[in-house]
Design goal:
Number of helices: 19
Order of helices and strands: HHHHHHHHHHHHHHHHHHH
Radius of gyration: 21 Å
Structural class: mainly alpha
Oligomer: single chain
Number of strands: 0
Shape: globular
Largest sheet: none
Distance between the termini: 34 Å
Helix content: over 70%
Length: 349
Amino acid sequence: MIGENKNKYLIIEKTKFNIILALLRMYLSLLVVNAHYYKTKNSIIKNKYILKLLKSRISVPIFFIMSFFFCYKLISSKDKIKIKKRFERLLIPYFIWPIIILLLNNLFYFTLNIKVKTTLKDLLIQYQTGHNIVAVLWFQLNLIISTVLILSIEIINSKNISFILINLQILAYFTQYSNFNYKLFSRYNKYIKYPYGRFMEILPFCISGYIIAHFNIIIYLKKFKLKAIYILTLIMIFLSKFIIIKNVKGFRYQGLKLHIESLIIFLIFLLIPSEITNINIIKFIKILTNHTTGVYYLHIPIYQYISNYIKLIKNKDIFGCLIIYIICYFISFIGLKMFGKTKLMNLFV
């Protein structure tokens, strides 16, 4: 009887928790920190391939792909309770974190003379654009808009949703490669051009995640797992070695090359076997890879508060980025312990 219960536990664990994707998510979160606070010029790491792995742009695109891949069932089911929880998870951080950071900024400004004074005008700009007090919330804003868009199409015309979404992808790339999107938003200040200018750049990633789940593409690829990984890897190497796709102006996440690379990496990680049966290993990796969203929300303010006190962080060293990550992790860990039974848990998970 005990053995049966243990086996049931393992089955539940394996279906709910993909170790490989959890490790990917942790790596992508570190990439986000590195993107803002890692200077390769003074780095002790000189190998160009390792540096590329530490400064890659793939984190945000893969997060968008992953988000819509996993929320496909939620949106397609039109389950009101689950959809409500989805929006709570998106909206609570979007509105609450800026208030918390505004209060902390002014506290540290007046007590420690840290130059992060913030006003109510800043808060208004933040809510309008997702790109001021907590600059990374532009991601959240685009996630909210994309979710509303895809959910609306699913409700209005679910039979043709794949056809409509693929046409939207084509439209998004038309606006990019015609430079229409860049010309439209580049004339505005950073609070407008980055959050809104990036929408047509990230929309194709969202749609790809949704389409992969919609057509169960991963089920087909798993039938030929090794061959699929081999071919995807070859395509990835080919793209990295040769310029076969035209570059285009944009706001960091533009172009088909980045889309294909991000998609390939996500698919490869989905195909890598993750069937670990050791309960202790599963628990350890769960603990290790938790709180990646908390790291994402907090890493910029944490840098601003402590960079003058820790040399590795001030010098934008790779180990400084790791320190930022660890501090954000533990703040999120404590926050979840305190608010884990309330809706405020969405600030940290």
